[in-house]
Design brief:
By secondary structure, the chain is mostly helical. It has a domain of 73 residues: Histone, subunit A (Orthogonal Bundle). 53% of the residues lie in helices and 0% in strands. The protein has 5 helices and no strands. Helix 2 crosses helix 3 and helix 3 crosses helix 4. The chain starts with 42 loop residues before the first helix and ends in a 10-residue tail after the last helix. Keywords: Nucleus. GO terms for molecular function: chromatin DNA binding; protein heterodimerization activity. It is found in: Nucleus.
Length: 190
């Protein structure tokens, strides 16, 4: 995906409105470098880097709020972390057993999975909006895969979706049969 070099990449969510930058609150008792301090490099360079970090954080926050239906106005940021053990299980199926992963690598895989899911969801939301619906469907996700040029995963997704639907149907039938009782035992003769 191409983006202009002068703009930071914010996960590809180009359709979200820009958010105002958040001010980083200092922790009581801990002080950072004073204004104008050159500790760690030029203050202008540090300020630019910090602004980009805060801007990326603000974009993530706005996405989190918009994806989850809005915030409560100050309750804090939403967290979209996947269970690390599940992400690692998927990774371990692909990489050789002798490859060791550092904690930073595990975290990077987890964050990349979250970004991918959010990007796919945003693209699927565009599909639903195009069809004048507010609810995402499986077809929206499948269309989003095509739009993102990830159509090679579509067959596996359809197969997994069908397995899920069959298991849900079996659970429903099992629950319904428990409520009715065993067949033929509904009427007892005296």
């Amino acid at each position: 995906m191409d983006h202009p070099p002068h703009q930071p990449f914010h996960g590809g969510f180009h359709h979200l409105p820009p958010q105002p930058q958040q001010q980083q609150q200092s922790t009581p008792g801990k002080r950072g470098p004073k204004k104008g301090s050159t500790r760690g490099g030029s203050s202008a360079g540090n300020r630019t880097s910090h602004q980009q970090t805060v801007s990326a954080s603000a974009s993530s926050s706005s996405l989190a709020n918009s994806t989850s239906g809005g915030g409560d106005g100050g309750e804090g940021e939403y967290s979209f972390d996947l269970p690390r053990s599940n992400v690692l299980r998927v990774i371990r199926r692909i990489i050789p057993d002798e490859v060791q992963l550092s904690n930073d690598t595990k975290l990077a895989f987890s964050k990349a999975a979250v970004v991918f899911i959010m990007y796919l969801t945003a693209t699927a939301q565009e599909q639903a909006t195009k069809h004048k619906r507010s609810t995402l469907t499986a077809d929206d996700v499948l269309e989003a895969l095509d739009e993102l040029e990830l159509g090679e995963y579509k067959d596996e997704m359809v197969r997994t979706l069908n397995q899920y639907r069959q298991s849900q149907k079996a659970k429903k039938e099992k629950t319904t049969s428990k409520k009715r009782g065993p067949k033929g035992d509904d009427v007892e003769e005296m």
